[in-house]
Design a protein that fits this description.
By secondary structure, the protein is of the alpha/beta class. The chain has six helices and nine strands. A seven-stranded mixed beta sheet has the order 5-4-1-6-8-7-9, with helices on both faces. A two-stranded antiparallel ribbon has the order 2-3.
């Protein structure tokens, strides 16, 4: 089995931040965790393993003050969920691989992403994180840019489900990873609970 080098030069990072944060009650990407905006924490983590780093937004005006060395991509398919952001990132990427990460994973660790990227093979279409409970994380995943045509076809067909995309790709590999770094935050109460879990596990 052939493994890819850990150089970030063959992988573009994509932070998906085009959601409306209805359940959170405010823009969770800008919500501070440990004195830093949630999205900034994710950008810093992704930038350690991928270059360049793009941020997917729903509109041109939805940029984030304070983020450095990032580019922006705007969804072609409006209000179509994270698959639209993935489409925009794959279309923009000039590297063979795109590392797609949700903006609401503030406890994501660099080592987790390195483990994910190390599992890439020349024939794989996607490398997807899987937690011990069996949950798949298509927004903590690495997609080969040849999957763009499949994503576009699915969007044109009106199917926005990320799990449907995984089912439609010829070869998807799953990497077992710990749960806490991959937990996303949908409500303030989730953030408080996960912060406590993270503090307990990291001393």
């Amino acid at each position: 089995m052939t493994f890819y080098p850990m150089s970030p030069s063959n992988c573009t990072g994509l932070i998906l931040a085009g959601g409306h944060s209805h359940r959170f009650g405010e823009d969770k990407a800008r919500y501070e965790v440990g004195g830093q905006a949630m999205i900034a924490r994710v950008v810093d983590t992704v930038a350690a393993v991928a270059h360049p780093v793009l941020v997917s937004v729903g509109e041109h005006s939805n940029s984030f003050a304070g983020l450095r060395n990032v580019g922006y991509v705007v969804d072609h398919y409006k209000d179509a969920g994270p698959l639209a952001g993935l489409h925009a990132g794959l279309h923009k990427a000039q590297t063979p691989w795109l590392l797609a990460i949700a903006c609401d994973m503030p406890f994501l660790a660099v080592e987790v992403l390195r483990t994910l990227l190390a599992a890439r093979t020349p024939t794989a279409d996607a490398i997807v994180a899987r937690t011990p409970d069996g949950r798949l994380h298509p927004l903590c995943a690495c997609y080969h840019t040849r999957t763009l045509s499949v994503v576009r076809e699915q969007m044109e067909g009106g199917n926005r489900a990320l799990h449907a995309l995984l089912n439609g790709l010829p070869q998807v590999l799953f990497v077992d990873l710990p749960a806490t770094p991959l937990r996303n935050v949908n409500r303030p109460a989730d953030l408080h609970a996960e912060t406590r879990n993270w503090e307990l596990e990291n001393g």
